[in-house]
Design brief:
Layout lengths: L1 H20 L1 H8 L3 H4 L8 H32 L1 H5 L2 H19 L5 H7 L2 H20 L1 H15 L2 H14 L3 H5 L16 E6 L4 H6 L8 H7 L3 E3 L2 E2 L5 H10 L3 E7 L3 E6 L6 E2 L6 H7 L4 E6 L3 H5 L5 E5 L12 H10 L14 H21 L6 E6 L25 H22 L6 E5 L7 H5 L8 E4 L7 E3 L3 E2 L3 H10 L5 H11 L11
Parallel strand pairs: 1-9, 1-10, 2-12, 3-13, 7-8, 7-9
Antiparallel strand pairs: 2-11, 4-5, 5-6, 10-11
Length: 524
């Protein structure tokens, strides 16, 4: 009877620990908010929940076998030896819970919390760790009983998760996330200047040009700067994509942004005015279309197609990614990615490539493909591309020329710069083949600088590149005065209208804007 009861307890403990190990997966599948859902390419599906359930089942069997092995070891050699196997049970679950804390409250995540402590705090944390080890060594039986009691109670999460799966199936809003209602294409305007607005996420001016890492060659950026207008003191609207990009697209500076799925992004004006919804706000996309020019968007992170689709002639976008949906609609891929995720952190994976790394490779290939296709026509119109080459995780290895980089959240930025240079070259080549490069306006900038640069080389600098090549121009102009990139929208509108046609005209236009940059950057 005792053995039968113990067997049942072990079964429940094993399934509970297995379920906790996938807590981060369940969190992403079932407990997301509408604010988080804004960034989803699609809502988590029943298929993905089924994959998670199968992974829990498989791990349940493995953990049950491990617990029975621990009991056998305990009977033969004592509890101390059995405790040596506990990390196999605890560490994946701890990693999963740590991931949830990192997402919901970054300041209290274990790695972030310890990193923020000064020396006395770190010494105190070490003392607590020593105390825990002492308690475990001297009272192993009590530790095991307490852990078993806690784990048994956490098994109650399983029916709650089942209820959440049913609830999401009943209240499915999937169609709201997959529907992209684009505008009808306009007739080509052969006399219009083609425009490429290339925004490379987290591209840092200082590291790109002034303090370029030793041994790093960026021929495409150097080539472009040598034949373009280059602002040397350009600063962006903010330090986050969700603030800078809306500011750049509207030409109106915001200080905070709020999201609500599937397509609502609201900005708080820097002048304290009423909140404005980006979807209904006038943007560079709507104004360019009003001039009779087709607008194509190839984007990342923000759901461009859902938010701006009504004024876009063509659009594709790629999401930030999660551990439950890696690279497309495939049950097998869901199964493998979810099984891998509990054994990874945000910066380390023991596997050939992390789950988020795989997603990044998939996205990079898609943006390059779609961007090249949009630029390969003789009359591309207005093309906006948001690329994430210099945003972690870094997956490109510049030394091998392959997408095999991993576990390099800081130093991998150098490889990100190399990838950005390659991407710029491929987009340029597409326009040259199509015959549009020489008559095009090309603007390359970023939404913010490299935010981890202090960890990279001990320096930080808010500046971003703001490089403009005008039609037929090949003379380099270095602009030494400070500018705010909030002028980007007005500049591009003037270029599309034909008010600015040469590099000297661009420099003169920007000079006349200097005193108005901040005054006119507020929400009306």
């Amino acid at each position: 009877m005792i053995l039968a009861t113990q067997f049942r307890r072990d079964l429940v403990i094993a399934v509970s620990v297995a379920n906790i190990t996938f807590a981060r997966t369940w969190n992403e599948l079932l407990t997301y908010s509408r604010e988080q859902a804004y960034f989803f390419r699609e809502l988590p599906s029943i298929r993905q929940s089924l994959a998670a359930a199968i992974n829990v089942l498989v791990l349940w069997i493995l953990f049950f076998g491990l617990i029975r092995l621990m009991r056998l070891i305990s009977r033969k050699w004592g509890d101390g030896w059995a405790l040596a196997l506990i990390p196999l049970l605890v560490l994946p679950a701890f990693n999963s819970l740590s991931g949830i804390i990192s997402a919901l409250a970054p300041k209290f995540a274990p790695q972030g919390f310890l990193g923020s402590l000064h020396l006395p705090g770190k010494l105190g944390a070490m003392a607590i760790l020593v105390l825990i080890i002492y308690v475990v060594r001297h009272w192993p039986d009590r530790i095991l009983k307490t852990a078993a009691w806690l784990t048994l109670n956490l098994a109650l999460l399983i029916p709650l998760e089942a209820g959440a799966i049913i609830w999401h199936a009943i209240s499915d809003e999937r169609d709201l996330y997959t529907a992209h209602h684009l505008a009808s294409p306009l007739p080509d305007k052969p006399d219009a200047q083609p425009v490429l607005f290339l925004l490379i996420d987290e591209l840092d001016y200082r590291l790109l040009f002034e303090n370029r890492p030793a041994g790093l060659n960026l021929p495409e950026f150097d080539r472009l700067r040598n034949e373009a207008f280059s602002a040397q003191r350009a600063t962006p609207p903010g330090r986050a994509t969700s603030i800078s990009v809306p500011s750049l697209l509207t030409g109106k500076r915001i200080t905070h942004s709020y999201t609500r799925g599937p397509d609502k992004l609201t900005g708080e004006p820097s002048n304290g005015g009423p909140l404005q919804t980006l979807q209904g706000e006038d943007t560079i996309f709507s104004s360019v279309r009003a001039m009779g020019v087709n607008t194509s968007v190839v984007g990342w992170y923000l759901p461009y197609c859902r938010t701006f689709g009504s004024v876009l002639s063509s659009c594709s976008w790629y999401d930030l990614g999660s551990r439950v949906n890696v690279e497309g609609n495939s049950f097998l891929r869901d199964l493998v990615a979810q099984a891998q995720a509990p054994f990874e952190t945000a910066t380390f994976s023991p596997f050939p490539q992390s789950v988020l790394g795989k997603h990044r490779i998939f996205n990079a290939a898609g943006i390059e493909r779609d961007g090249t296709a949009a630029l390969r026509t003789p009359s591309p119109g207005f093309v906006y591309i948001h690329h994430m080459a210099t945003h972690a995780p870094y997956v490109y290895d510049r030394l091998t020329g392959t997408f095999t980089k991993k576990n390099s959240p800081i130093n991998g930025y150098v490889d990100g710069l190399a990838l950005a240079d390659i991407v710029l070259g491929k987009f340029r080549k597409a326009m040259e083949v199509a015959g549009s490069w020489d008559r095009a306006v090309v603007l390359v900038t970023a939404d913010h600088h490299f935010r981890a640069s202090m960890q990279f080389d001990g320096k930080t600098d808010d500046r971003v590149p703001w490089i403009v090549k005008m039609p037929g121009s090949n003379k380099r102009i270095n602009y030494h005065f400070p500018i705010h990139t909030i002028i980007t929208r007005r500049f591009l509108e003037a270029a599309v209208r034909g008010d600015i046609r040469t590099q000297p005209e661009a420099a003169e236009w920007i000079r006349t804007q200097e005193g108005r940059v901040y005054a006119e950057s507020e929400w009306k």
